[in-house]
Amino acid sequence: MTALLTVDRLSIATQARQLVRNLSFSIAPGERLGLIGESGSGKSLTSLALIGLLPETMAATGSIRLDGTEVIGAGERQLVALRGPAAATIFQEPLTALDPLMRVGRQVGEVVRRRLRHEGLPSSAPAVQTRVLELLSRVALPDPERLARVYPHEMSGGQRQRVAIAMALAWRPKLLVADEPTTALDVTTQAEILALIGQLVREDNMALLFISHDIPVVAGTVDRVAVLRQGELVEAGPVSDVLQAPADPYTRSLVAAARTFDTALGRLF
Amino acid sequence: MNGTAGSMPQTEGKMTRRTIPLSLIVGGVIVGLHLLAGLLTLFWTPYDPTAMVGGRLAGPSLAHWAGTDRLGRDLFTQILIGARIAIEVGSGAVAIGAAIGVTLGILAAFATRTLDDVFAAAFDILIAFPTLLVAMLIVAASQTASLFTAVLAIGIAGSAIIARLTRILAKRVLSMDYIVAARVAGSSWPSIVVVHVLPNIWPTLIVNLALQFGLAAMAESSLSYLGLGAPPPNASWGRLLQEAQGTVYTAPFGAIAPGIALVTLVIGVNLLADGLRAFADPTRRGRR
Ligand SMILES: Nc1ncnc2c1ncn2[C@@H]1O[C@H](COP(=O)(O)OP(=O)(O)OP(=O)(O)O)[C@@H](O)[C@H]1O
Ligand SMILES: [Mg+2]
Prior knowledge:
A: alpha/beta, B: mainly alpha, MetI-like fold, 10 helices, elongated
């Protein structure tokens, strides 16, 4: 099977600094890849580069092929067409990822309407509303009809993240990118959101790029991991191999730190 | 940030209810009265504004609520007409200023670094010139003192302030995650402007536009005062103030009455805008 995403010798740099260097990895359709690394290692930048959303001040070199399209050097029109159907992203902070002045139902509705138009389906208000409610119940939000009418600040963090997931799902993307989607949430909510993402990815047969610095979280969610350190790939392979017998000293230290932390918390690895 | 999917913050029901802010009601009533008075003059005025209907410089009486001017014309009639002119000038100038200012501000916010710097510097330079001076220059350049040139001049002169504010507000919104999220979901820039940027800058912008309305009404008064505003027989409040100037000690009411009219309209518009902002911002709704 040809890969859905192939990143080949990707480098990202500002004028002053090299932020990501020679990064290569690929994701097959339906495959789940974890990208781990400490804070500042370039995980978020990589995820933005995949859909051509790097800040203006940065330049990317190398190659990123997403669903058959070369992203680096692509024009805005090509990129807009790619964002959504090919890849959708869930962000770390669910409050700021939603427009504070727009009712939740409308925010999801905007994406739904765009997709319906894109696919040449009727996009009347009732048609959109039906899909919005479907999506909200798919992400297990209670009482979707009421929640569709509230503003983001009137929801809990977990509920907001579910809305963000619903927006990502609205496109039925081939690749779901989740950039530390549970970092801002408490442990119980975190587990629920992870279970939800896992379930949705399986149901829709989406590929998943799961970014995190929380190793136990990654371990339970993905098939393969890639370890990033200061913008460079240090190790990659199946979860069990990399996390149980890390080859690289850096990975070893990450795993050891996670283990100590977990023992202290009494969590099972 | 606690809570699972099942639990809702308790404040939710209260926050969603649309309580109408007091300032919206008070401001609405004041502006509404001015508006009614202005509209009324299109069909009816207590007296002919140009006719000598009483003694010269008479004080307020039952027949002449605001007294008469030095030609014996009814002042209350002229103040009512002045309300219409002030509202025409205020809303006209704000509409022109907002159309130019918001467009330029949004363009600047989306522009590349260098172009944005040029925009920003241009706004700052324009703002450094007093609005009134710019308006005077525009009126002088057009060589006709009419109500329309006054409105146009005040609108253009005020647009730089609106442009600068729009640029700053829009840039802040554009740096938010939900803009990235919208782009990730395939939104194009025009739809981001309409769906996210304008609604999010509007609550702050509206207050500024109200301020601009007040400034425009006062700027017209100043232009009229200098003889550059609406020419006679347009009884703008500025011209009334100017005419009352010579007799301010003997007949103070000639200056006080249009002054009160101007101040109440400006206050009313500001209250209205503040109320609208509170109403437009769901996170502030229900708070006073
Ligand atoms: N807009 C920017 N301009 C310049 N440098 C940036 C910018 N954004 C990020 N960086 C730098 O790029 C590096 C990688 O950032 P990135 O956000 O990808 O880290 P991360 O791995 O996602 O970290 P975290 O786990 O904290 O989210 C950091 O050193 C950061 O300082
Ligand atoms: Mg990050």
